[in-house]
Amino acid sequence: MAEPRRILLVNLWLESGGTERQLTEIAKGLDRARFEPHVACLRLRGMRLADLRQAEVPLAEFPVSGFFRPSHARAWLAFGAYLRRHRIEIVHAFDVPGVLFGVPAARWYRTPLVLSSQRAFRSLTPDKRPLLRLTDRLAHGIVVNSHAVGAGLIAQDRVPPEKIHYCPNGVDTAQFHPPDTRPSGPPIVGIVAMLRPEKNIETLLEAFAVSRTAADSARLVIVGGGECEPMLRRRAASLNLDDVCRFEPPARDVPSWLHAFDIFVLPSLSEASSNSLMEAMACGCCVIASRAGGNPKLVEDEISGLLFEPGDAAGLAQQLRRCLAHPELRARLGQAAARRIRERFPPSAAVERMAAIYDTLFEKIVRSAGT
Length: 371
Fold this sequence. Notes:
- By secondary structure, the chain is α/β, with parallel strands linked by helices.
- It has helices spanning 18-29, 49-54, 70-85, 96-108, 129-138, 147-157, 201-211, 229-238, 254-260, 275-282, 295-298, 313-325, 327-344, 347-370, and strands at 5-11, 35-41, 59-61, 90-93, 113-118, 141-144, 164-166, 188-192, 219-223, 245-248, 263-266, 286-290, 306-308.
- The strands form 2 sheets. Strands 3-2-1-4-5-6-7 form a 7-stranded parallel beta sheet, sandwiched between helices. Strands 10-9-8-11-12-13 form a 6-stranded parallel beta sheet, with helices on both faces.
- Helix 4 runs parallel beside helix 5 (129-138) and helix 10 (275-282) packs across helix 13.
- It is elongated and about 70 Å long.
């Protein structure tokens, strides 16, 4: 019987974001008879560490304080030693820092198969775009979680279509599922997200401030930290929401928050394939999302959720008023959302698709090397 293929998954860290969750699920879910996953971080920290340790996934850290500093050279040397010591055959870098570090280093050390992931639109990181285009040329393949992201790479970054490989996100429906009953009491509108500019949560604050007439007792809960939190707190205060809006830190137990929400809102200006949106749908929340990126591929408007134009606070307020005023609409949309995720996005499908990408490309690269 052939030995398992040894794979190193590379990321900046293992904090609370969707990329970190997907990397963790892939590392945990790969068939150990076929693959031996390892995980490397530039900063070995975050809430996903416990999951990987429990799954006995080997972990490594390659600290980089800057890409043009001595620490980068030291990290490259240590990375090469790790690849040789563990006979790594596949390196797959997930986020932008992981790609910029892992792809060139893995090619330098002649790793048989080197992959990158592009899980967001590159317009979010314009300063990194020239360097990412170099890694596009170095990588044997680029894995995307959204067809829209893949199309952007082809049209805007001149990536050959044959280099693009689609692997949708998956949701662990054993963990993310509707509660037996939702809490009684005032309706709760919520979001779980990293508080970054592209999430555009100020639009949610503005829409909530004017939609409360449909349910005076409604509350807003924003779960997740990030660079925009101070600004968002000030904006909430200016809208006189202090008594009805709560900010909560990043949570490990995300399902408990989603079970408490009646309505989940994702007002992003840019979104590839949102883990948080999929998880909210899986938990039976009534979801309202912007028509950004891959959101319309997840949410069927008026069937499994509601959509509005990105940045349109008035449009979002209109949808919020509908859902706050009509509990039966919330229930219908939430049931359809949970059914859609359960049927179309099981976690096993994402892991199996990623495994198929690894197998197919590895065999192709090995055959090419032998000819």
